[in-house]
Amino acid sequence: MKLSVRTPLAIVVEADEVAHLRAEDETGAFGILPGHADFLTVLDASVMTWRDRRRVEHHIAVRGGMLEVRGGETIVVAAREAVQSDDLQHLETEVLGAFRRALEEDQAARTDAQRLYLAAIRQICCFLRSEQAPPAPGGSGVSRFDRPGS
Questions:
Q1: Are 70 and 38 in contact (CB under 8 A)?
Q2: I need a surface site. Which of 49, 53, 77, 138 has the fewest CB within 10 A?
Q3: What is the helix (H) or strand (E) element at residue 2, kind and residue range?
Q4: Domains detected in the chain
Q5: How far apart are alpha carbons 63 and 94 in whole angstroms?
């Protein structure tokens, strides 16, 4: 099989003669052998391992992404970030830890942005409700938008 791992800025891996690939998605670890059915999944931040025809193992840490198997012979991975190394211990401890911290920071930033968005919508709704409120007793009955020059 052929394996290609790409980020927005680089092609990190182009490997031919891949005999086996192991990766992880939200359901857990899975393996791909030659002839695998077409497949598409969302990867977690994890370390992918593949073995070539000479039975040599290679590793790459990915910060999430998409994995696609095409025609049972081509595996394409699109990841936000990827680091290739034959030092599995380094990838699992330092690189993967950094990827997971970055994902947590991204999630916190999205949560904060969502809170700000909802607060703005609430303020707009409160403003619109106050503008549509009936006039106070004894008032002129004319809203500020109905007055000439407003």
A1: yes
A2: 138
A3: strand 2-6
A4: 2-105 (2.60.15.10)
A5: 13
